[in-house]
Amino acid sequence: MDLTRNVNVVLDKIAAAAIAAGRDPGSVELCAATKVQSDDVIRSAIAAGIRLCGENRVQELAAHLEGDAYAGARVHFIGHLQTNKVKQVVGKVELIHSVDSERLLRAIDSQADRLGLVQDILLEVNVAGEESKGGVVPERLPALAEMALGCPHVRLRGLMAIPPVSTVSGGNRKYFAQMRHFLVDIIGKIADNHNTVDCLSMGMSGDYEDAVAEGATLVRVGTAIFGPRPPVSPAH
Question: Which domains does the chain show, CATH number per domain?
Answer without folding.
Answer: 3-226 (3.20.20.10)
